[in-house]
Amino acid sequence: MTPMNRPVFILSLALSLSSYAFQACSQKANTTKTKETATPATDKTIPYQLDKGQPTELPDELQEISGITFLPDNKEWIYAIQDEKGLLYSYNLINKQLSSVPFEKDGDYEDLAVSKSHFIILKSNGTLYTFPISEKNNIQQVKTFKDILPKGEYEGLATDTVRQLVFALCKSCSADKKKAQTSGYIFKINETGDLEANGGFTLNINQLKQFDSSFSKTFKPSALTKRVSTNEWYILSSVDKALVITDDKWNIKSVFLLSRKQHTQPEGIAFDTDDNLYISNEAGNKDKAILYKFKLFK
Fold first, then answer.
1. Could you say which residues form the signal peptide (predicted)?
2. Which end of the chain is less enclosed by CB atoms within 10 A, N or C?
3. Concatenated DSSP letters of the chain
4. Phi, psi dihedrals of residue 199, rounded to the nearest 5°
């Protein structure tokens, strides 16, 4: 190389290196941008494979199963209610034994939960019923709480057994009209099954939209339960075919859309003592109601 050509070569080499560095940085920036703009529902994970539930066909008596729960000391028995029947059902997951006991006349019952000492049952019009767990095979002492909730349609009920609180969640309430929210109400339950108003909470629909733009101005929950091990709320919507997870302050952490083929009408949700997740589906247009078990994996 002649001395005259050396500066030209050096300049050409410098330009080539600069171009390479710019392309590398651009690729890195594009990768970073892709990660940042990915939908949160895809990025968030939970320790359950929602596409791999273990199905159990439920007896014909539970075709319209609308709520499920477990007692804290027994994972073999699941307790349930169904639309139109004032019965508490007990179903053994091992031997498939089913029994029922009346607690009230027939009506539109939507969900149930347990405190340390009582069952609580929610009627769609907001009426609540409590009776002792000790009477689960022969219910006698039922307490009825009419007009304890604002007028509306309700389907979701859950408890926080540590704080002895009961949570009722609107499906359609006048308080939420023209507002991007879903309202909920809190009650304190004592050892005799009495309920006392203890405030309320809301789910922010705009937060839901950040996870999935398909949500409109409404969110219609069909059930909820608390995952005690993580202090999170798992909220189910049959209408939206979605599972929403929030923190203890009702801030939305993740949203998962459920398979419409598997979950034709998901109406009940609960955890057993091993932290396995259960979702129940009404029969709908199928022959049988289905209970899905999602094993906890680590």
1. 1-23
2. C
3. --TTTHHHHHHHHHHHHHHHHHHHHHHHHHHHHHHHHS-HHHH---SS-TT--EEEEPPGGGTTEEEEEEETTEEEEEEEEETTEEEEEEEETTT--EEEEESSSS--EEEEEE-SSEEEEEETTS-EEEEEGGGTTS----EEETTSS-SEEEEEEEEETTTTEEEEEEEEEGGGTTSSEEEEEEEEE-TT--EEEEEEEEEEHHHHHHH-TT--S-----EEEEETTTTEEEEEETTTTEEEEE-TT--EEEEEEPPTTT-SSEEEEEE-TT--EEEEE--TTSSS-EEEEE----
4. 100, -165
- pLDDT tens for each residue of 203-222: 999 999 898 887 777 789 99
Q: Which domains does the chain have, with CATH numbers?
A: 54-294 (2.120.10.30)
Contact between 174 and 192 under an 8 Å Cβ cutoff? The reply is: no
- Token readout for 48 is 């359950």
d(CA 155, CA 124): 6
Please identify every stretch of the chain with a pLDDT value under 50, giving residue numbers as ranges.
Answer: 2-43
